[in-house]
Amino acid sequence: DIVLTQSPGTLSLSPGERVTLSCRASQSVSSTYLAWYQQKPGQSPRLLMSGTSNRATGTPDRFSGSGSGTDFTLTISRLEPEDFAVYYCQQYGSSLTFGGGTKVEI
Amino acid sequence: EVQLVESGGGPVKPGGSLRISCATSGFTFSKYNIHWVRQAPGKGLEWVSSISSTSAYKYYADSVKGRFTISRDNAANSVYLQMNSLRGDDTAVYYCARPPTSSTSWYYLDYWGQGTLVTVSS
Predict the structure, then answer these.
(1) Are A93 and B47 inside 8 Å of each other by CB?
(2) Do A95 and B59 lie within an 8 Å CB cutoff?
(3) What is the enclosing helix (H) or strand (E) of B73?
(4) pLDDT per position in chain A (106 positions), as tens?
(5) What number of C-beta contacts closer than 8 Å exist between A and B?
(6) What residues are paired with B35 via a beta bridge?
(7) Beta strands A86-91 and A63-68: pairing type?
(8) Deepest of A23, A57, A62, B108, by most Cβ within 10 A of its Cβ?
């Protein structure tokens, strides 16, 4: 099974800052099969990005994704107050696997 | 509007059983694979089980294999998860989710229900 490791576990930042979240896979994942989700307290996960860099409907363009092989990143160019949440990466090339999440907090 | 609504969660004793449901609307249910994903309190997301559109294929995480059974009723637009031999580490919010396409391949999940909480405790 493919294991996804996200780092760091928690990031403490301020609005307006740029943030880069990391997702590392235990074996190579095609960039076609890597997604990112955002989850706020008490809410279901929301799809942000699929295929590494394709923004889902409603995802602001301050969010961008990149990477290949075993290393993927989600970047938020300028943090807005509504971006403080937990972010999960997911691979769907072989079954479904989620990373452990990165919490972005104020 | 695509909707998925989970129900049937609640408290159950270790070793007990529970069946949770996912009722759907707003799309042609019989064409889509459906997935169950759970989240233990304060923890991350864990894929649990998946069922293909015709029920021909069923998949389980190792952590639930042999204890959980996924099924669906295409006439009722619903998916079910029968959970037996429940343990404390099965305590979680259980979400059902749908991929964006009716493909038979694994996919990301773009529609999620609100979840139903299963609490396993004596």
Answers:
(1) no
(2) yes
(3) strand B68-73
(4) 899 999 999 999 999 999 999 999 999 998 889 999 999 999 999 999 999 999 999 999 999 999 999 999 999 999 999 999 999 999 999 899 999 999 999 8
(5) 52
(6) B50, B97
(7) unpaired
(8) A23
